[in-house]
Write a structure and sequence with these properties.
alpha/beta, eight-stranded parallel sheet, about 25% strand, binds NADP nicotinamide-adenine-dinucleotide phosphate, about 35% helix, eight-stranded mixed sheet
Length: about 350
């Protein structure tokens, strides 16, 4: 017998829309609906996709007056679900937790824009399916790491497992896109730096011993992030060969190894051209052509699909938190739903 878990997605932006289209087709999940806060063309899109739309109580009449079918208030949706996947704009998840999830006793998954520490912390762990999948089992509140933090864990953990103490430190120069493809905000012609990137501390939440240093630069692009990772090796054998590094990623979920892309735009455009859902690859792509071993240092550049990375990650987190499945079983389900192995093979062939 299939046990249906009722899930409400609070937010219908870049992440919420993607979560909705994948969760809606899973036979064990009943999508209660999605939340809309602004009256814009995305309300129409959600209704055309046959999602029930929930709105703030004070806005019920406004949406109805515009002719939109509304299924109830945010509180109604939280009441009707077993789990909320919060996909609110950055920082608002905390207020949602205080106003709805806690008083109504509902577990929730938050996104990477929420705080892990401090006064507005929403949960006591950040999930990365490659590292701490099991720890999320049965938890009430968990943050799904951001796209960059998810990608970092996915690349660092296989290296740590293979080379352990030989690794002295990781340095990552994070080159960030300015906006997502669907965003209406302008892309500014400037390279901006982040005075206090959160990624380093976020990664240490699930890999506490990582000697990791991250700097982040935002560039005028909408096409994915690029991480340039420097892995420094100490005594005891020096740096591995390029072949040994690539071997670590051969069977990794959500890691493609490609050679002939000239930039992040090539990968994104290929995903669009191939008709991948939402134009996402949902993975990281190691650019083999610029993977270098120099003296004690291995330099790995990989592009990180900003909008797609966290969608299978949220799905895996649901498998741990709610269904309490083993990681192997959850990965099989995620592979089936997102066709990760198939799409990785296609990308590797396209960019060989
Ligand atoms: N974009 C990415 O590439 C990416 C990748 C990984 C993680 N994330 C994280 O995912 C979260 C969402 O990002 P996003 O890019 O999807 O943002 P977004 O496109 O700006 O969408 C944010 C959504 O939040 C809704 N909203 C407004 N007030 C809300 C409330 N009180 N409760 C719930 N939702 C509310 C907005 O509704 P209306 O549109 O109706 O106003 C909008 O649909 C952030 O924490 C972000 O850091 C984003």
């Amino acid at each position: 017998m299939i046990v249906l878990v009722r899930i409400f997605i609070n937010g219908y932006g870049n992440i919420g829309r993607r979560l909705a289209s994948s969760l809606a087709v899973d036979k064990e999940i009943q999508l209660v609906g999605v939340a809309k806060y602004s009256i814009d063309d995305k309300v129409k899109e959600a209704l055309e996709n046959r999602y029930d739309v929930y709105v703030p109580k004070e806005g019920l009449n406004n949406f109805k007056e515009k002719g939109y079918k509304v299924s109830g208030s945010i509180a109604d949706a939280v009441e009707r679900c077993d789990l909320v996947v919060d996909a609110a704009k950055e920082g608002v998840g905390y207020d949602n937790k205080k106003n709805f999830y806690e008083p109504m006793n509902r577990p929730a998954i938050f996104q990477g824009g929420e705080d892990r520490n401090g006064e507005r912390a929403v949960a006591d762990m950040i999930h990365n399916s490659r590292v701490n999948y099991d720890k999320a089992s049965g938890k009430t509140y968990v943050i799904q790491g951001s796209c960059n933090v998810s990608g970092m864990g996915r690349v660092m953990q296989p290296l740590i497992q293979n080379f352990g103490d030989r690794i002295r430190r990781f340095d990552i120069e994070l080159v960030r896109r300015w906006a997502d493809l669907e965003d209406t905000k302008a892309v500014k012609d400037s390279i901006e730096w982040d005075r206090n990137p959160h990624h380093q501390d976020d990664v240490k939440d699930f890999i506490p011993n990582a000697n990791l240093y991250v700097d982040a630069f935002k560039v005028p692009s909408r096409m994915m992030h690029l991480h340039h990772m420097f892995v420094r090796f100490g005594d005891g054998g020096g740096a591995p060969t390029k072949g040994q590094i690539l071997e670590c990623f051969r069977n990794e979920f959500g890691v493609a190894t490609i050679s002939s892309a000239k930039g992040t735009g090539d990968v994104r455009k290929k995903a669009l051209e191939l008709g991948f859902p939402h134009g996402d690859t949902n993975m990281v792509h190691i650019h083999q052509d610029i993977l270098r071993v120099q003296d004690d240092t291995v330099k790995i550049a990989y592009s990180d699909d900003q909008t797609g990375m966290v969608i299978p990650e949220n799905y895996l987190l649901i498998q741990s938190m709610v269904f309490r499945r083993s990681r192997d079983e959850a990965l099989k389900k995620a592979d089936n739903l997102f066709q990760m192995t198939k799409r990785r093979t296609i990308l590797e062939e396209e960019f060989k």
